Amino acid sequence: MLPPRVSSPPSPRLSPSAAPARSAEQHCLRLLAASSTPTSLLQSVAFLLKSGLHANPLVLTRLFAASASAAPALLEPLVAALLVPSVPLDAFLVNTLIRAHATSPIPSVRVRAAAFFPLMLRGAVVPNKFTFPFLLKACAALPGSPAFGLQAHASSLKFGFATDQYVSNTLIHMYSCFGGGFLGDARNVFDRMRKESAVTWSAMIGGYVRGGLSSDAVELFREMQANGVRADEVTVIGVLAAATDLGALELARWVRRFVEREGIGKSVTLCNALIDTLAKCGDVDGAVAVFEGMQQRSVVSWTSVIDALAMEGRGKEAVRVFEDMKVAGVPPDDVAFIGVLTACSHAGMVDEGCGYFDSMRVEYGIEPKIEHYGCMVDMFGRAGMVERAMEFVRTMPIQPNPVIWRSLVSACRAHGRLELGESITRSLIHEYPAHEANYVMLSNVFALTQRWKEKSEIRREMSKRGIKKVPGCSIVELDGEVHEFIAGDESHPQYKDIYRMVEEMARELRRVGHIAATSEVLLDLDEEDKEGSLHWHSEKLAIAFSLLRTPPGTQVRVVKNLRVCSDCHAAIKCISQVYRREIVVRDRSRFHRFKDGSCSCKDFW
């Protein structure tokens, strides 16, 4: 007997009213997928409203995602108009809202991203593992408000996603964005994770760099290699950023060889990072070589090389690269113009700089920003055209900022216009009473005119306001190790030998006729004590250490966090001649290449 036939269930049929709705939904989704401009997006919105799809979660999800990429300025108005209480929420929709806001180019939109997570919880929508990476990234971007991030971390623990690899990586990123005080939290997350992925190591390396702990970033990279985890492009860019911060040229060169040896793809972004690092560590020719070897170049590539040449005072070469960029069909942007104006400023090419400044509007329709005006004031000041610089500032269409005024003060000081410099500095102190640089500049003006009483009053005022001068710090890299020196510091293991070497250098300088520029010492001491205090400036300690530890003829490289003072600049010129060394010093504004008693800056910096 045959078993009874089991009939298949009938295929579900859409009701007559559901079929058109389904068709409208699919058509709207296709329109949204093709929306690449604000106009096409608004056409899709019109169809959405006409078809009654304003409460469809899937359609709204695609709409907000499309707005984030095609029309960021429309995202907030669309959310305000369409995300009403009657819309049924799901995790896909809320995740999209968080991500769309977190990745927006508009700052006021980005800060709203984290606000959608409480909405999710109030709507009884359970987050999934995709929610927290978006949410934590949004929290990382909130300025000065770690509370949201801490709450988000607690929620990830509550819902069981804190150990997810992607969530943990984003937690590291978030805590490192909160600043140095939270780097320990980032490291705690890192230490509890499986460390099989380069993404995890890169997140922590990047966190250390952002927190100013570049030496720790380099040490972690070495640990990553010892654990056999292969570095990727993001890792390398993080290590290059650490090398830049430390001024570690040998590390930068090693990373360049490492990229070649490991076969890491040399993308435009990676090559740009290599150019920037090599240049800022003092190997401008190496940076140019990387640039010349690139098959594809972006405007950032060109600008990085222009900046590199400008920092070394090779203005004519920088201008030539700028012209080559135009010939190659790459239109210069506002950043490129900052580079070429800086090059003209450092090289004393006033006429050329004025021509480029005028061409911004005339040829390229670029409205000069405060940085471009600052370059022009610096250029006139360096060239000794103090009156022209003042007139330029008076006729600027935008309000000059403190940086421009301080640039004018530097020009006044360099060219003997001390009365004008004092007047400007007093105005700066009146308007910006909390900025230490203004007090230091006025103090130095008083020192140059030997007005010790007024100088002491400035120091007392700084102390009264709790304002402290940033201490000078110099860094030297030797045999893969970074050594840090602070003026008068005795923490280095070889400090006794270093100080003896500094005293020897002082004797040698006196022997060849060098006289310390004691007028700018920031304490009212007698001449002998003033000269002594100058001996212990951080760059001299770093140079003494390098002379002790390297063979004769070896190039000495120093990175300093502040501008090199006048006495140290004059002294290092003599040291380069007496000890027959080329000495390269990177201060906060440029490179100084000392050789045979002269400097590449031509004594104007």
UniProtKB/TrEMBL annotation:
GO MF term list: RNA binding; zinc ion binding
UniProt-listed Pfam families: DYW_deaminase, E_motif, PPR, PPR_2
Spans of repeat PPR: 197-231, 267-297, 298-332
UniProt xrefs under InterPro entries: DYW_dom, E_motif, PPR_At4g14850-like_plant, PPR_rpt, TPR-like_helical_dom_sf
DYW domain: residues covered: 513-605
Biological process (GO), any one: RNA modification
Keywords for this protein: Repeat, Transit peptide
Listed name of the protein: DYW domain-containing protein
